[in-house]
Amino acid sequence: MQAGTPVALVPEPAQDGRQIIHESDSHWRSTMNKDQVKGTAEKVKGKVNEAVGRATGDRKQEVKGDVQQAAGEARKNAGDVKEAIKDASRKPV
């Protein structure tokens, strides 16, 4: 393969249920885990609720958005920790 030639990304299922993107024969990269995805989604919902609450003057909805963002951040961070543990356990000592 020549330098600069694009590499097609082909999704392949991993044994632990996550999807792995195959970039080349020697390099593998995994996608986000369930907690990371759900945490990010919750943060987005929170941002929307906060913005709507701010635009309409509804303080209760604005606070609800703030709480959702914090919960989403916590769940995403938990997913990050799980991912770091998995990555550390895969590396040879």
TrEMBL record:
It comes from the Bacteria. SUPFAM superfamilies: Hypothetical protein YjbJ. Residues 56-65, 73-93 have a biased composition (Basic and acidic residues). InterPro entries: CsbD, YjbJ_sf. Residues 54-93 are annotated as: Disordered. Pfam families: CsbD (PF05532). Belongs to the UPF0337 (CsbD) family. This is CsbD-like domain-containing protein.
